[in-house]
Amino acid sequence: MAEPAAGAADRGTSEAWFRRYAPRPHATARAVCFGPAGGSPAFYRDWARSVPGDVEVLSVVLPGRERRFGEPPSTTMDVLADALAEALVPWLDRPTVLFGHSMGASVAFEVTRRLEASGGPRPAALVVSGRPSPRRLRECPSPVADYDDDAIVAYLRGLGGTPDELLDDPETRELILPPCRADFQVIGRYAPDPHPRVTTPLHVLVGDRDENAPAWDAPRWGEVATRLAGIHVLPGGHFYLVPGRPAVIAHVLRALREADAPVRTTPAAPPRLARSERDTRHAGHADSGKEREAVTFAPAYHERRIALTGDTLSTAVALSETSADAYVLFENRGAIGWAEGEYGSIVVRAEGTTLSLEGADPVEFSAGGGVLHALDQALAAVRLQGWRAYGWSTFELSYPLHGLPAVPGDAPLAHLVVPGREVRLEDGGALLRTLRPEELDGLEQRVRSAAALGGAVGDTRRVAADIERHDADDYRASVAAAVDEIRAGNLTKVILSRVVPVTSPIDLPATYLEGRRGNDPARSFLLRLGGWETAGFSPEIVARVTGEDRRVVAQPLAGTRALEGDPLADSSRRAELYRDEKEVFEHAVSVRLVAEELEQVCTRESVTVDDFMSVKERGSVQHLASRLSGSLAPGRTAWEAFGALFPAVTASGIPKAEACELIHRSERDSRGLYSGAVMTVDADGTVDAALVLRSVYRHEGRTWLRAGAGIVAHSSPDRELEETREKLRSVSRFLVPAAHAGAEPQSPLSARDEQSAALAR
Question: What are the φ/ψ torsions at residue 687 (nearest 5 degrees)?
Fold first, then answer.
């Protein structure tokens, strides 16, 4: 038997469909809220008092709930949407936004379709929340219509919106289950038609850990709307909107404002919401295999392990030399990750982060909660099993982190890629990963060919850069001015750098290979990504956060002397490091700041100095080095740890905001990748970020070196200039000329450079 369509032609008889917890007859706009499956109108009770005084909130009352308890519930979408559309017409006498969460999103969408088809009044905007796109609902139909009571309870536990104590109480369950049974009939039998497309502006909200409505699917709502007005990913699981109510209401009100509704005021800006440790599965779903597959579906890499002989470093370099795509080589003490192509890209700018995945429209994540929070949201929306992202961040990322004005222009602050192809190399073998199984054979052939090429560069000639004289006088003057500011009490320490151009063409992969053989870095990298090319030998990490045990490690290096290969002279300089008041002070204050930064995000008692002021040899220099670690506090994320430590104190200064401001005033060029980070990020939350120093850079047709020195009150301009030369030699002695420039005469090396190059060979 068909259900009777309940409705009314006037407001009096349609009143039963709506609950007004704070009636506002003179409101200039309305928000009509549709609840999740099994929910009551009270789900939106607090909204009524959280919106501005000129907005009235109506919460939908379905048959079988609250005052309509005695009415038979609706069990099909068509009957429910027909009745609600008719009942809603009298309430559309002023600008109205429809908001629906979970099942309520589908109901609000179908009501909007019917109102548009009727030719009468229609909503000003539609906001759908926590609901898969209509296409996904067709591709992965839900089996919930066939659930028995135990399966329904298990499903509700998995979603996390109903307290366990209510689900465990037999009497309460008897009240909860009847409306859930009816709503699950609506959900399970709903197969949305892709046509007609709604013309009402459509906004999509999702939780970044909601596997029921994954963020990667959100852009597909645009297939059923002529105007997809915005997609916003907020922190949390399926019921993210409960703790995140202020942020959700702000988006709903923004939808009204963008539709030219006369909303005069808005609530206070939503607070930044702490993120719990990233999880990849909701526990407690019903035991239906079909439902679990529909909820947790995500593509995965196809993998193959192969045995290899030969040098892994030269193999990775040969892969880079022959690649026509974007690539990143990231090496950690012999373990190499090599990524090629872009299945997904994450581009960070001051105003927000853009996630672009293959086959989907870009998704924007607002930086309203912080620029790294937006980055974290974007990465959480990558629904690809076992992914690892590779990429970089510029030094200028520090400006929004420390409240400084953004650098003019639209240059990205960070760029990460989830690769289409990946090779992980260690002695004796390689792990090959591709997203398309048919690409594995071709990738294996490329890797074996690269391994067979061997590691010899063959050309011992070098391109010279004028590290001795270029910009030397201006650098001394900048150091002297910085010392004056430090002695005036404006700051404690600052790192100022100088740029040395490389005017002859160089072969970056060959330069990287020769430089890695002549250096002993903490990390090394070779990349071509986002308009940047660089080869570098990082002396230290900014931070490493392990996803499994949530341990944060920082490794500040400060205090420098040359390392030239003469055991007696190098030993003497090592002893000099410990005696030099300036070097010891510079290192000690850096370690103190790193400890304070770790305490911002770690449990205080877990922060330890594991190694203090030992000496690390890094190519042409030796440094005072320390290692600190701590355990992330509950609710803190890896990106909050990175943000606390970035930029590295050893490449910026103390205090960081004042140091960054002085750097901006003193240095002619933006730093870009110099003193930024090259990093890998894993799906389990692991972040490994290397400090970008001891590198050669190519960008927008220019190639250059860059190095700096730590300046404190006791600094000497001549000594700091010499320190930059010592650091520059870590790279300058390995600049290999490009093949097409091989016949060009090279500038003569200085005596010290010639000695260093000979020792490296």
Answer: -125, 130
CATH number attached to the domain at 11-141+195-270 = 3.40.50.1820
CB-based contact 428:406 (threshold 8 Å): no
- Secondary structure of 106-157 in the HEC alphabet? HHHHHHHHHHHHHCCCCCCEEEEECCCCHHHHHHCCCCHHHCCHHHHHHHHH
d(CA 395, CA 697): 14
| Amino acid (1-letter code) at residue 57 | V
Look at the domain 344-418+457-760 and name its fold: Anthranilate synthase (3.60.120)
> In this predicted model, which residue has the larger pLDDT, 719 or 454?
719
Q: How many Cβ atoms from other residues are within 10 Å of residue 499's Cβ?
A: 18
Question: What pairing do the DSSP bridges indicate for beta strands 523-529 and 677-682?
Answer: unpaired
Amino acid at 379: L
- Cα(381)–Cα(662) distance, integer angstroms: 37
* 60-65, long-range: CB < 8 A, 24+ apart: 60/17, 60/18, 60/19, 60/32, 60/33, 60/34, 60/35, 60/84, 60/104, 60/107, 61/16, 61/17, 61/18, 61/19, 62/35, 62/179, 62/183, 63/6, 64/178, 64/179, 64/182, 65/40, 65/41, 65/179
Same CATH topology for 11-141+195-270 and 344-418+457-760: the answer is no
DSSP 664-716: HHH-SS--TTTTSEEEEEETTS-EEEEE--SEEEEETTEEEEEEEEEE-TT--
For 535, phi and psi rounded to 5 degrees? Answer: -130, 130
Q: pTM of the full predicted structure?
A: 0.63
* Residues belonging to the chain: 761
- Confidence tier at 171 by pLDDT (50, 70, 90): low
Distance CA 719, CA 752 (A): 16
User: Which H or E run contains 105?
Assistant: helix 103-118
Summarize pLDDT for 409-419 with one digit per residue, the tens: 789 999 999 99
CA distance 158 to 190: 21
Domain range summary for the chain, segments of one domain joined by +: 11-141+195-270, 344-418+457-760
What is the set of active-site residues?
Answer: 540
SS3 185: helix
Buried-exposed string 143-169: b where 16+ CB fall within 10 A, e elsewhere: bbbebeeebbbbbbbbbbbbeeeebee
Average pLDDT over residues 451-455: 76
Pairing between strand 29-34 and 96-101? parallel
